[in-house]
Amino acid sequence: MQVVAYLVYLLASVLFIFGIKKLGSPKTARQGNQLSALGMLLAVVVTLLDQHIVSYEYIILGIIIGSLIGGILAVKVPMTGMPQMVGLLNGFGGGASALVAFAEYFKEADMGLTFEMSTLITIVLSILIGSVTFTGSLIAFGKLQGIVTGKVVKYPLQNPINIILILAVVAATVIVVMEPSNINVLYGIGAVSLLLGVLLVLPIGGADMPVAVSLLNSYSGLAASMTGFVLSNNMLIIAGALVGASGIILTMIMCKGMNRSLMNVVLGGWEDAGSDSGAALDGPQKTAKSIDAEELAMLLDSVQSVVIVPGYGMAVAQAQHAVRDLTNILEKKNINVRFAIHPVAGRMPGHMNVLLAEAQVSYDKLFALEDINDDFPNVDLAIVVGANDVVNPAARHDEKSPIYGMPILNVDYAKTVIVNKRSLNVGYAGIQNELFFYDNTLMFFGSAKEAINSLNNELKAL
Known about the structure:
- The chain is α/β, with parallel strands linked by helices and about 450 residues long.
- Helices cover about 60% and strands about 5% of the residues.
- The chain folds into three domains: about 1-75; about 80-265, no CATH class; about 295-460, TPP-binding domain (Rossmann fold).
- It has helices at about 1-20, 30-50, 55-75, 80-110, 115-145, 160-180, 185-200, 210-230, 235-260, 260-265, 295-300, 310-315, 320-330, 350-360, 370, 395, 450-460, and strands at about 305-310, 335-340, 365-370, 380-385, 415-420, 440-445.
């Protein structure tokens, strides 16, 4: 049976790898999820058969309750709530790893077994990483849900306090290795780790959540991998390592997309993040030109190519269906419509892709920054829906700007730019967007859903 288990684990690992590979494209993402889910199902079943479990009552009860909760969430949670759900799932994974590590410690202690140093260290690491992931993910969920402020939260001696807490965990680990029976120290490690999760994520601004979510996802994988070492389970080690590695790679891609270091994000980013006020444009103030739905409809009726740039404003207004309708109307007029997706638009990796997929926008219309940026000079009209910093030209030339060097979508190179926003308020970086005042830019004010629906009605009337 053990040989069969190892062979099934190998098959499951291959399914995980192919599943992750297929997640690289929206067209194959569902298939990737299905392959990974099948791999996990095989691993769970063979583990239950191989471990000679005496009683299945609690396991069956857990499966039923967990499946019901998961099924309800899958049906009830809207696509706009996916960032929050992903954050919660990361937290549950970390919390489960910490609980399993505690359970294994109690099991070996009750049996009077002699703890090996490697086992104790992996137990501590599982508790540490799992607990940090659990509370950190809860804070991330709170920020995304609006329960916790999305602003950067800093406090006196923030970094020294975090360092002291980490050193305390290291010292406590040494004590546990020297005195394995000292359960109070292990409880202390768990408590400090839970506090660290709060303190490490609280300073991260709301718009940096794509980085925070992918980093916490990596943590949950590392916690699972450590738990695999605790249980001597190769499948858990492999699965955790895959999640941990892919999570950290995605995190670095997110940071590159903002031209910022991981430490800059983790330590709190910009002081003005999430605020409604910030630096204005240097020099003489310019006046933004506006356009209404009727005028914009007539303008759209005369173009041949349109690129739509979605941002967090589209997600907040839940305007993805209105944008889909706009796409359909324009295509019926033989206008070429494409979407330009910035890697850090929204509040989680792939946020815009998820929303547009939910609205049934064809995958072949979605283009990454590097695939469409050079074509903007050939675009008749670019429509920015709720995006701000990711289209700010200051990133290219203003060395004093906090977003200087960040890759942006070159919408200002289009012949005409339409920016849909509720106001001229600054974005996450706390600076005014100079695009609003360019000669080829027209502001289309209003909440994204209402404004786009109004535009659709005008287009239908033409």
